[in-house]
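[job 4471] stage=fold_predict status=RUNNING
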Amino acid sequence: MIAYIYKISETLNNKVNIEKLDLEIRASVISNYLTPPYITKGRIYVDFEVDASENDKLVLKSIINNHDGELADVSEIHVNAREKKIREMTEMALYHPLLTEHETVQYLTSIDNHFNGWKRSGVNSVLIAKIQEDANNINHVQHGFLNTIVNTEGNKTFEFLISIIIK
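[job 4471] inference complete, writing structure tokens
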């Protein structure tokens, strides 16, 4: 295990919300991350299973520098909307004949973490932007899955997921 250590003063507002920071890191492209981060003597410790890649270190530094330390500002209405959409997509994953349960649940978990990490209103726009970004990123771990044809109309998985979100 390797810990990367940052000063609380390196965050945006000199504050840390551990739960939110954990979600921000999990929603990123960083791999080999052990959760959650913790604070000791004014320092933030972020543990990894193995030495992080240079890219992961840069992403982590950016997350730390942009972390505002505030509580998530989201209403119960937005939380319920998010949960409803995630539930609909999970049901779709379980019963769609061409989408494997494991891949779909894994991907839905990643976009839910993304949404939770930023706690923005507008569940539709956040999830759609995330799915489109992932589908267009050839290096994304779910790129192949998101670009798999899932019906006779020729729709790809990401287009199918988006149609579920915007209905």
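[job 4471] summary: The chain has two domains: 2-66, 76-166.
[job 4471] exit 0
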